[in-house]
């Protein structure tokens, strides 16, 4: 066991590099997913059939075709069209597109679950559509969608582990290296898993703080922590 | 222009690789999904009931372990199990997928059990039903009806995670596509077809689940 920790200690700098790759994939993929989710989530509610249909087709395509297929497509197929992507960029794109499509459903569900009266009030005040969405609807939808989005963000973090397949030296890859060096599977992947767990915990804590802040802005106390509408939005996750 | 177009998508290659992909789909992807979800559905229910019924010194470690499984990547779990147990790779992979998704399904079952109205428990007590009978005849049937759609979405999720099995050297459909692409230096057809096969299988299932959800919501 002592040799194991000595080996780990000697490898700490490279683990820091691997951690950095995993964090880059998570934050990059997460940011892209968030932007895509808002665009697709809002357009999927459009009153124009063509816009709505387009958004739905994109969402279903990226939800339905498996993360690894999308990653391979970006990594192996795009270069044949003359676009050679770095592994890290391909990874961020695949994660962002895949989880963005899932998150779009969360955004759509959360906007839908803002009470009808709020929409009617904005009409009564003759607010312009963008103004209405930004000032009235979004702050309320945002508080509803945070728990589901944080679940998806954790799934995205775990999804980054496929990066080692496209030759990225991330945490999972380093776990494999540590296993070969120590010959101790339990230790090597135990350390790796605990590192992922630590990152996931950071996301959980961050999301809890965000949710609290969003609720405070709406004047809702901590007593009304989870509304039934939040549960309704989360059932759309995963399909 | 014409030549370039045929270079991007070659139908001969598409037809050549399609049967190979379909074979891998049936032999690996489908088998892993079906057996894996059965394991997940059973283990998930047992875990959810453990939290309700077992004494704290059993319930807490089980809950903690499942939380750990849920919060760490399935790829790391696959690698760990493959090297730690030195067992048949496909069987190992299926069990790992099953236990990973059991952690999610346990949460689904838990919400379903919590959603059974309190009056049902009280009625069972009033009729002096034994705890076993209460669970089997009253609680589980009612909670199953509400959780089936949510379980279904996790099955679809697992289905799309089966390509991760390639990290433990199982030649699934996507790995087959990658190998074919490498041999012919032509990835477009193989990888695109693999994605389309996933889409063709998962989208109708998703629609079916949605329909089922609507129907069950009426009760």
From TrEMBL, chain A:
Domain of life: Bacteria
Protein name, UniProt field: Amino acid ABC transporter membrane protein 1 (PAAT family)
Domain ABC transmembrane type-1: 19-207
Family statement: Belongs to the binding-protein-dependent transport system permease family.
SUPFAM superfamilies: MetI-like
Source organism per UniProt: Bogoriella caseilytica
Primary location recorded for the protein, binned into one broad class: membrane
Transmembrane portions of the chain: 20-40, 61-81, 87-104, 141-166, 186-210
GO cellular component: ATP-binding cassette (ABC) transporter complex
Pfam family, one: BPD_transp_1
Stored InterPro entries: AA_ABC_transptr_permease_3TM, ArtM/GltK/GlnP/TcyL/YhdX-like, Ectoine_EhuC, MetI-like, MetI-like_sf
Automatic annotation (TrEMBL), chain B:
Membrane topology: Multi-pass membrane protein
Domain ABC transmembrane type-1 stretches: 26-209
Stretches that traverse the bilayer: 24-47, 147-170, 190-209
GO CC annotation: ATP-binding cassette (ABC) transporter complex
InterPro entries in the cross-refs: AA_ABC_transptr_permease_3TM (IPR010065), ArtM/GltK/GlnP/TcyL/YhdX-like (IPR043429), Ectoine_EhuD (IPR014341), MetI-like (IPR000515), MetI-like_sf (IPR035906)
UniProt-annotated location(s): Cell membrane
Major localization class: membrane
UniProt-listed GO biological process terms: amino acid transport
Keywords: Amino-acid transport, Cell membrane, Membrane, Transmembrane, Transmembrane helix, Transport
A Pfam family this chain is assigned to: BPD_transp_1
GO molecular function, one term: transmembrane transporter activity
SUPFAM superfamilies according to UniProt: MetI-like
The keyword Cytoplasm belongs to this UniProt entry's keyword annotation: no
Protein family (similarity comment): Belongs to the binding-protein-dependent transport system permease family.
NCBIfam families: ectoine_ehuD, HEQRo_perm_3TM
Protein name per UniProt: Amino acid ABC transporter membrane protein 2 (PAAT family)
Organism expressing this protein natively: Bogoriella caseilytica
Phylogenetic placement of the source organism: Bacteria, Bacillati, Actinomycetota, Actinomycetes, Micrococcales
